[in-house]
């Protein structure tokens, strides 16, 4: 069975793998809408005909390509669902005929994801009891349930999809204990032979194994520095929905949580999560675990605010043009001023659910809501149409389903966002402009910025790298009102292999604001973005784009990226010229190689040093001695001008940390360096082994003015 499903996936993906079309697919080809129609007695209507159904998109009638009443069947039943009017044969089959029985088996299964978010003690008990009732009353041979913990660091799989009630119940016990905790899953700390956390126990062959197989193939790990916990939680929901996109039929998510915070700068991600769920035919039901409508989440909000402060401190731009820097607290002041727009956490959960065709369910008695949800999953109409408007403009397309029969009530999705796909994955709305810039001919050059990839821990299978981008604020449009000065830039980088196929996408939307009194400092600064990622050894290309969201000016940079094989002995990272070092906030993100004992490192990507600024010139690097580690690493830094050494630090010991890395910061007074071109050479010794890393930089006189990219 497993071999068959892999063959199915291969056939689905092979056409795209061999095509020479652009990486981003534009144009909405087909929209799937599942519809439930109930009569005055709340019973599902099963005898509708195609001529009684009308689908409108943004008020425009659409032509149906497919109309089918789907009713679940027991495994092995080959009769299939009843059809009326338009036949399923009017659509091209997604898989070869020989593989259709397998997909039919999966289609007849109901896939339920139980997601447990941040809950108070009463909410934890309610979630556990509700799932126990679900197991008792709804669980059947064709229902497969997975259990997930919705944590501050993402979605943790506690139980793969199964119809074993005991395993589901045991996973729920663990879920309610994990909720609200910061769980750590850092693959970069593991040996090269271990690429991820230990997987759950092997699932026996059958539909459950195929569900896990398909989702494991398409659940992408995104190494994005989240704005805050809101971003991480939304990314987790989006990832869960996208992972189920290749599974046929209707999928349900029961989301137990006390609320969902949506910040002004994460609204696009909420919309993207909703759109991904609608594309994947995933219906979300939020379960309100707070009985008292006046109860708030003050304690949780304090924790979330602290997390937001920590994230902002490491991702927002620093201003180095004066004696004072814009503090993270001032940035948070701006955020707090706008957060009241989305302050209703429970209302945000309701929007998420209702926008996907689900509902917000009361926790007091879930038996009837669960029964209705499962009934609608088993019995519903499936409609498809090709939109009259095929362009992808990123806007919301409202779907309305009308039934020409009096006294009935129609339940369907509210619509979708018209976004392109990148290798089958829906992009974020802000990525539309950056990807259009990457695909434009000739490449736009209106916006100056710098980008670089730094190599860190080498691995036999995958090496650790960091993408860094730096946009001078003077290249951006600065919007000012009576209180604030604001800039807004979006960055996307595509990593392509030697065949030109996209193997990774790194992106960030960067809104930034300071009090208006500091507007001139802002103009002398930069907006910085760094994010870690991993690649196997090989030759790659990097295509990076930055877009000023206010002026629509864009810039594109292309470069070659070489990831060498891991050396047998002592290894060293690229030598990084440092722009600043910020105090590291807890919890430490061990997956980020720019996090040293001294704090969070932000690279100076331009390679230009302002001689007039106060403070030392700092370099950062990491040594990786061979295992087992027996001693410290000896380090020497040398500065050369025109090939002649002018400064050399004494050799010193750098201790090796528990993860077998030895990070270090080396500094020297910048005033000692006259304007000109220089080279920094780092030499490491470990026993009888040695390694070197070097970087070139330019020292300029006068006020800080970042050099324009070449």
Describe this entry's structure for a reader.
This protein has 710 residues and is of the alpha+beta class. The chain has three domains: 28-90 and 107-319 and 346-426, 3-Layer(aba) Sandwich (Rossmann fold), CATH 3.40.50.410; 430-566, Immunoglobulin-like (Sandwich); 567-710, Immunoglobulin-like (Sandwich). 23% of the residues lie in helices and 34% in strands. It has 13 helices and 37 strands. Strands 8-7-6-9-10-11 form a six-stranded mixed beta sheet, with helices on both faces. Strands 26, 27, 28, 29, 31 and 35 form a six-stranded antiparallel beta sheet that branches. Strands 30, 32, 33, 34, 36 and 37 form a six-stranded mixed beta sheet that branches. Helix 1 packs parallel to helix 5 and helix 8 crosses helix 9. Residues 1-23, 73-100, 179-202, 215-227, 291-304, 306-342 and 704-710 have low confidence and may be disordered.
Layout of secondary structure:
Layout: H1 2-18, E1 24-25, E2 31-38, E3 53-57, E4 60-61, E5 64-71, H2 100-108, E6 110-116, H3 121-137, E7 143-151, E8 154-162, H4 165-178, H5 207-218, H6 229-243, E9 251-257, H7 267-279, E10 282-288, H8 298-315, H9 328-339, H10 345-354, E11 360-362, H11 367-378, E12 379-385, E13 396-403, E14 409-411, E15 415-417, E16 421-422, E17 425-426, H12 431-439, E18 450-455, E19 463-472, E20 479-480, E21 484-496, E22 502-515, H13 519-523, E23 526-535, E24 538-548, E25 554-563, E26 571-572, E27 576-582, E28 595-596, E29 599-603, E30 608-610, E31 616-624, E32 633-641, E33 644-648, E34 652-654, E35 662-669, E36 676-686, E37 689-700
Parallel strand pairs: 6-7, 6-9, 9-10, 10-11, 30-37
Antiparallel strand pairs: 1-16, 2-12, 2-14, 3-4, 3-13, 5-12, 7-8, 13-15, 16-17, 18-19, 19-23, 20-21, 21-22, 21-24, 24-25, 26-31, 27-29, 27-31, 28-29, 31-35, 32-33, 32-34, 32-36, 36-37
Helix pairs in contact: 1-5, 3-4, 6-7, 8-9
């Amino acid at each position: 069975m497993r071999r068959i499903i892999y063959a199915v996936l291969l056939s689905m993906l092979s056409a795209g793998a061999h095509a020479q079309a652009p990486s981003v697919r534009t144009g909405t080809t087909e929209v799937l809408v599942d519809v439930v129609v109930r009569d005055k007695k709340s019973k599902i209507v099963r005898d509708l005909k195609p001529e009684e159904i009308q689908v409108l998109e943004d008020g425009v009638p659409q032509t149906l390509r497919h109309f089918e009443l789907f009713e679940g069947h027991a495994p092995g039943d080959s009769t299939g669902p009843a059809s009326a009017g338009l036949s399923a044969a009017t659509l091209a089959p997604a898989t070869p005929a020989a593989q259709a029985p397998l997909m039919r088996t999966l289609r007849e299964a109901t896939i339920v994801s139980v997601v447990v978010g941040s809950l108070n003690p009463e909410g934890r008990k309610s979630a556990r009891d509700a799932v126990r009732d679900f197991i008792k009353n709804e669980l059947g041979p064709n229902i497969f349930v997975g259990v997930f913990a919705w944590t501050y660091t993402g979605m943790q799989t506690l139980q793969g999809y199964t119809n074993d009630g005991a395993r589901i119940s045991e996973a729920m016990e663990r879920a309610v204990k994990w909720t609200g905790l910061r769980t750590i899953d850092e693959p970069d700390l593991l040996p090269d032979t271990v690429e991820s956390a230990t997987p759950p126990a092997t699932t026996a062959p059958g539909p459950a194994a195929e569900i896990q197989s398909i989702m494991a193939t398409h659940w992408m790990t995104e190494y994005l520095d989240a704005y805050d916990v809101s971003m991480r939680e939304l990314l987790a929901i989006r990832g869960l929905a996208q992972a189920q996109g290749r599974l046929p039929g209707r999928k349900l998510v029961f989301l137990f949580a006390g609320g969902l915070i949506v910040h002004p700068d994460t609204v696009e991600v909420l919309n993207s999560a909703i759109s991904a769920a609608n594309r994947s035919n995933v219906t979300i039901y939020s379960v309100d675990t707070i009985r008292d409508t006046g109860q708030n989440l003050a304690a949780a909000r304090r924790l979330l605010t602290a997390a937001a402060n920590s994230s902002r401190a490491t991702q927002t731009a620093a201003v180095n043009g004066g004696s004072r820097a814009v503090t993270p607290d001032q940035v948070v002041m701006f955020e707090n001023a706008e957060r009241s727009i989305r302050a209703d956490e429970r209302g945000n959960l309701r929007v998420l659910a209702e926008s996907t065709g689900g509902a917000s369910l009361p926790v007091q008695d879930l038996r009837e809501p669960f029964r209705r949800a499962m009934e609608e999953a088993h019995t519903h109409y499936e409609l498809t149409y090709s939109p009259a408007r095929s362009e992808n403009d990123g806007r919301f397309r409202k779907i309305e389903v009308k039934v020409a029969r009096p006294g009935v009530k129609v339940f369907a999705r509210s619509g979708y966002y018209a976004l392109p796909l990148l290798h089958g994955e829906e992009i974020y709305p802000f990525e539309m402009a950056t990807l259009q810039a990457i695909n434009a001919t000739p490449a736009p050059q209106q916006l100056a910025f710098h980008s670089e990839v730094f190599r860190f821990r080498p691995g036999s299978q995958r090496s650790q790298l960091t993408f860094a981008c730096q946009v001078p604020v003077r290249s951006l449009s600065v919007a000012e009102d009576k209180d604030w000065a604001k800039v807004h830039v979006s960055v996307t980088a595509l990593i392509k292999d030697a065949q030109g196929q996209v193997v990774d996408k790194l992106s960030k939307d960067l809104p930034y604001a300071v009090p208006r009194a500091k507007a001139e400092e802002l103009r002398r600064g930069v907006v910085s973005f760094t994010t870690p990622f991993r690649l196997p050894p090989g030759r790659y290309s990097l295509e990076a784009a930055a877009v000023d969201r206010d002026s629509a000016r864009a810039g594109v940079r292309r470069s070659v990226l070489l990831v060498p094989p891991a050396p047998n002995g002592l290894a060293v990272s690229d030598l990084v010229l440092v722009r600043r070092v910020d105090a590291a906030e807890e919890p430490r993100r061990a997956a980020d190689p720019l996090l040293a004992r001294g704090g969070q490192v932000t690279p100076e990507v331009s390679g230009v040093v302002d001689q007039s600024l106060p403070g030392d010139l700092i370099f950062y690097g990491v040594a990786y001695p061979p295992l087992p580690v027996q001693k410290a690493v000896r380090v020497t830094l040398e500065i050369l001008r025109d090939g002649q050494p002018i400064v050399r630090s004494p050799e010193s010991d750098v201790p090796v940390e528990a993860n077998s890395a030895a990070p270090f910061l080396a500094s020297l007074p910048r005033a000692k360096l006259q304007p000109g071109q220089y080279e920094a050479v780092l030499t490491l010794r470990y026993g009888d082994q040695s390694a070197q890393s070097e970087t070139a930089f330019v020292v300029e006189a006068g006020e800080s003015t970042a050099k324009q990219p070449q």
